[in-house]
Hints:
By secondary structure, the chain is mainly beta. Helices cover 8% and strands 59% of the residues.
Amino acid sequence: MPYAPSIETDPFRTRVVYDRSAERLRIAVDAFADDADVSVAADSSRVRIRLERAGGVYDRTIPSPSHRRFTDDREAVFNNGVLTVTLETAPRPFSQAVQARR
């Protein structure tokens, strides 16, 4: 069964689902405002989502699942006010996993 913690905070709701069997993390962000400027940046260990609206700037950083890293297989789609980010995961090399815990 996929791991699915929800983050329900203002100014935008975020749902994170990690499907272990498919090795994919999917993030859905309700950015609904037409005037919002949304950006996504990802590296091997985290995804940063930034939302700018007239009311301010909001950031959310989501780490990779435990002992996993993000690969280069990534996609971000913004449609009807919903941002969907999908990232493939792979095992983190042992030496990196040990250093991450320190």
